[in-house]
Amino acid sequence: MKKKGQVTIFIIIGILIVVLGVLIYMVYPGIKTTINTEQKNPSQFIQSCIEEEIEDAVDRISTQGGELEPEHYFLYKNEKIEYLCYTNEYYKTCIIQQPLLKNHIESLIKDEIEDEVEACFDSLVESYEEKRYQVNLREGDLTIELLPKRIVATFNHSLTLTKEGTENYEEFRVVLNNNLYELISITNSILDWEAKYGDAETTLYMNYYRDLKVEKLKQSDGTTIYILTDRNNGNKFQFASRSIAWPPGY
Q1: For the whole prediction, is pTM greater than 0.85?
Q2: Are residues 26 and 7 in the same domain?
Q3: Which of 83, 139, 231, 247 is most buried by a 10 A CB count?
Q4: Do 94 and 197 fall into the same domain?
Q5: Beta partners for 145?
């Protein structure tokens, strides 16, 4: 009987706690507001919605020589690695294939994520409309910038939320911590060496950039695979070059 009495007391206490919580939530609207503000704001919503899509695009571009769909490539370990400097002749230096590599990659990322950006903003509008907000979204331009130690996606969208007051958002930004900018700068330097002299001295880069690993892998047809890896975060960029190739047997 004593044990049954204790169980009954615990049940009653549990019911009282639940009822008290419901009453507080209903009686004090300020608590509701606090709970709502803990949810993602529009900027956080867009960041979490689109950042994985950008990361996936960057990973593919970085492992495929600056292309999403390589067309002129060397197949290395089942990966298509685009030639960024190439000649099909023997004894001659290569010609750089993408003189504006940074701009090219920014454009690729932009094209790749545009559909997902539209879907994310549609989801954002829908989520606030479900909370009985009046939503006004005006779409603007999308820009991608490779900057030192980061990638920035800027959406010039204007969003107005109205519900017991008005909130305005004039611009959205998604920022990724990534040093693709630095890796591309080093890539361009290596390509200049390949185009002028047919080869690049990779130890010079590793002596200057202590956190950088540069691999230069010669292939039998005269192709060289360069793999640049940041030792701290594992970010890498790899590409192919064919310069001053020698005929078979030499």
Answers
A1: no
A2: yes
A3: 83
A4: yes
A5: 152
